[in-house]
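Incident log, support desk, overnight shift.

02:14 A customer reports that sequence design results differ from what the structure should imply. Their input is reproduced verbatim below. On-call engineer (initials T.W.) acknowledged and began investigating.
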């Protein structure tokens, strides 16, 4: 029951009109659908398509998906050789929960330094890659080169690349397909701008981003989805656990309807946008939040470790 009540907190909040930016018809949770508290609970429960009861073997009850908790640190265009060496040493000495996949994405120029000094417990991601094989593409970095340095992942579709650099859905999809074809995992970012949320287009935008990935990729086996509302990135304005959960449920449901129930269950959907050591626990408790993509707070080793270890909030209370 703990799981259901966690989810109901979020869904119930919709009823109050608190999350006015979303297209409420998605979950059909307007008041007219509920004649009693009981029918409300039944209706919400029917939308929790991937309930925890399906995972009897896991010591985890608050994950709708069946994938391992995943935490990525996106260092963006930050750091120097010295500051990165300190960050790596803090990460190497941190105690990290074993049941979590951990990845960091240093700037390209420090990938080799990080790969050579960071514990193997943490995998390395790139923040971008080229659309195909390398060659005469000045300033680009190929997937093959990233693999040569030991990268296992690449972040694609980040809002800073969509909205500052101008990358399109199609361009991002091409990169994702190529990276996957070379066995590089993709952290596929989606998320709406503030004006899109305020215009009630959050789901439309997220689904459009999802479709662009789905149209391009042959398989979802090596993809982690990062829902990152643009208004929450680097602003200190984190989405509430209910706001994040609401979109994660919708994205998982989109996967279920448009790809398959199996992919919807297996694919990690992580949240990004002002996650820090203070707010990660409440976010982690949400059923459809399978981890985090962390920017600013991932530049501080101990705080990043706290965020990684928030996976413990997924576990059954003894
Ligand atoms: P933030 O960045 O944690 O600094 O908001 C998140 C991201 O851009 O991935």
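02:41 Re-run completed on a clean worker. Output:
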């Amino acid at each position: 029951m703990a799981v259901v009540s966690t989810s109901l907190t979020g869904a119930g909040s919709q009823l109050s009109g608190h999350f006015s930016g979303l297209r409420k018809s998605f979950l059909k949770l307007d008041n007219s659908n509920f004649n009693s508290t009981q029918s409300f609970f039944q209706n919400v429960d029917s939308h929790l398509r991937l309930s925890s009861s399906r995972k009897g073997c896991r010591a985890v009850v608050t994950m709708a998906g069946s994938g391992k908790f995943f935490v990525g640190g996106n260092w963006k265009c930050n750091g120097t050789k010295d500051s990165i060496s300190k960050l790596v040493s803090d990460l190497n000495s941190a105690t990290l929960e074993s049941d979590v996949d951990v990845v960091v994405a240093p700037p390209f120029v420090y990938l080799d330094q990080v790969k050579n000094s960071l514990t193997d417990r943490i995998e390395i991601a790139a923040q971008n890659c080229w659309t195909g094989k390398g060659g005469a593409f000045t300033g680009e970095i190929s997937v093959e080169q990233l693999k040569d340095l030991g990268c296992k992942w690449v972040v694609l579709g980040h809002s800073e690349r969509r909205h500052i650099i101008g990358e399109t859905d199609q361009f991002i999809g091409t990169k994702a397909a190529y990276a996957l074809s070379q066995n590089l995992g993709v952290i596929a970012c989606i998320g709406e701008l503030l004006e899109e949320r305020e215009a009630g287009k959050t789901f439309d935008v997220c689904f459009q981003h999802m479709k662009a990935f789905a149209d391009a990729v042959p398989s979802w086996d090596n993809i982690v989805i990062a829902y990152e509302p643009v208004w929450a990135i680097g602003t200190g304005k984190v989405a509430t656990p209910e706001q994040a959960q609401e979109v994660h449920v919708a994205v998982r449901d989109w996967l279920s309807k448009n790809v398959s129930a199996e992919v919807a269950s297996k694919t990690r959907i992580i949240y990004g946008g002002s996650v820090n050591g203070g707010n990660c626990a409440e976010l982690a408790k949400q059923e459809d939040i399978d981890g985090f993509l962390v920017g600013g707070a991932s530049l501080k080793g101990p705080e990043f470790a706290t965020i990684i270890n928030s996976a413990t909030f997924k576990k059954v209370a003894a």
